Inverse folding.
């Protein structure tokens, strides 16, 4: 799969680079305190050490318009698509290491199905922050070539990815709801599918090499 630059026009429909902030203290904290397992990934929705930094206040006020946010992280090692997810509200990723994001447009989903041929790969260089639009399908980052893993700070509206709420709808988009503010589309070969997630990705389960 071709890995593209976030500086190209191809990235414009998915998000934008966030450049107005000094994320050095946040990245230093992330590098010092987050694990980086070599046999999988770990996701922490909310980390008090990251949320106590100046960057958290700035992002909450400027990027999210004063809405309450959470800052956590995804770290470890991964090279497989497995699933795609989306949220209500944009997501900010702040990369401490070079990392690849696999992205696709939500508008291409039809009846909960999406062909993996719609997925594109983008390299996020270490030290770079990107805002992913609400309409951008994404999931766990993948290792960049030559990398032994990654650490990425994840900024979302507060409460996202926590326990699934009780809902009244029983069909349509409701089938995709996997956690709070988290709609998930799984590939049939993924661990999430084995756990009961909605199976809607068709085609090859993409592996980043």
């Amino acid at each position: 799969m071709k890995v593209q630059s976030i500086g190209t026009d191809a990235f414009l429909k998915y998000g934008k680079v966030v450049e107005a902030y000094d994320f050095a203290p946040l990245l230093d904290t992330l590098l010092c305190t987050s694990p980086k397992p070599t046999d999988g990934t770990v996701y922490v929705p909310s980390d008090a050490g990251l949320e106590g930094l100046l960057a958290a206040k700035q992002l909450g006020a400027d990027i999210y318009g004063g809405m309450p946010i959470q800052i956590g992280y995804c770290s470890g090692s991964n090279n497989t698509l497995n699933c795609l997810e989306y949220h209500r509200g944009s997501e900010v990723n702040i990369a401490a290491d070079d990392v690849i994001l696999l992205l696709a447009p939500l508008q291409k989903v039809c009846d909960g199905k999406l062909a993996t041929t719609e997925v594109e790969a983008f390299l996020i260089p270490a030290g770079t922050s990107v805002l992913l639009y609400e309409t951008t399908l994404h999931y766990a980052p993948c290792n960049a070539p030559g990398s032994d893993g990654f650490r990425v700070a994840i900024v979302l509206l507060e409460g996202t990815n926590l326990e699934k709420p009780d809902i009244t709808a029983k069909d349509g988009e409701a089938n995709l709801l996997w956690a709070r503010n988290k709609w998930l589309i799984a590939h049939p070969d993924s661990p999430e599918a084995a756990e009961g997630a909605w199976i809607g990705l068709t085609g090859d389960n993409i592996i980043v090499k």
